[in-house]
Amino acid sequence: MKRFDCMKALARRLSDELVILSLGASVDEWYNAAPHMRDASLFQQQLGCVSAQAFGLAAGLPHRRIVSLDTDGGMMFNLGILATIANEQPKNLFIVVWDNECYQSIGGPPTHTASGRVDIAAIARGAGVTRAYTTRTVEEFDGHCADGLAAQEPYLVVAKVSGTVQPDIKRKHSDGREDKYIFVRHVERTENIVIMGPSEHN
Amino acid sequence: MKPSAVDAVIRGLKKAGVSIVCYLPDSLFKELYPALDADPDIRTIRVTNEGEGAAICGGVFLSGKRAALVMENSGLRASVEPLARMGLGAGIPVVMLMSYRGELGENNWWAIPHGITMEPVLNALRIPYRIVTEEERIERAITDAFSWSYSAYYHSAVALGGSVVR
Lengths: 202, 166
Description:
The complex is a heterodimer.
Chain A: H1 3-12, E1 18-21, H2 25-33, E2 41-43, H3 50-60, E3 66-71, H4 72-77, H5 80-88, E4 93-99, H6 120-127, E5 131-135, H7 138-150, E6 155-160, H8 176-191
Parallel strand pairs in A: 1-2, 1-3, 3-4, 4-6, 5-6
Chain B: H1 3-15, E1 18-23, H2 32-38, E2 43-46, H3 50-63, E3 66-72, H4 74-90, E4 95-99, H5 112-124, E5 129-132, H6 138-152, E6 156-160
Parallel strand pairs in B: 1-2, 1-3, 3-4, 4-6, 5-6
Helix pairs in contact in B: 1-6, 3-4, 4-5
């Protein structure tokens, strides 16, 4: 199963959701797989922060569906967030973990899931995220996207994907700061709120 | 903490517009945590480590709500990675309120590292901070931290020490 194909399936289901995603090649893949979601996606370079940030966003905007596109390396970096999410039970948080069993962006050394012993969905269930599943086909993954985007409790799907990157995709040129401004302005526009307002005259 | 100091913290947080507090409990702020839990205007989120709390606060910032990370100053060390990534990499601010363990007067050997590392770690991250040891300065320190962080879009910190916490 290719991550890019999964992304395209998920992208077809998204319109007014907000997405926070992890680092590495998945950033450029999402940029291309979901061009209509570029402004609504916060492209991060942060191992271990993605689902925590997504949960914070979900806590602040409880009426809005938030999608976290995390990774095996990122989730293993901070497993505690699974326990926090389980205890807090956000009704609007859908977590996808792209599990390619490697640190792809640095050439592919194995992550802990490559051993075949470590099961992130089982860890999530053990932490109290009861709706946590592993998928190996795009059709199955797409079904979990439908369920996860409608769930009224935390929902996590681990997508077992190959370590390949979609060839010939357009690379994103913006950095973390520009991405933040684009995302914040999108949230302001769609929520009709001010997050980063004008300076004071004094 | 005296009840009046707990009240001053909560007054400051509310004046700054905070509606979500992430915390990992410690002993010097022992009386503060249940007061935050009991406050109807503040949602508390208990975290497994302070770095996770920093990342959650970053997400809350992106929602337009205001959050604070409350912790012992040892939590600063656990937060360095997400703070550096979010603050220096993306300009996503986190305002921290920490108890000052390990300052002069400390009577626990295990807390000495917290005092020795707090200011150098804050300085390494270029995080401005104020150490408050008088109750009447708590509220202003918290609102000032938020004013600064929402102008700079960078982290700031308030450390409560001295007779405020002992």
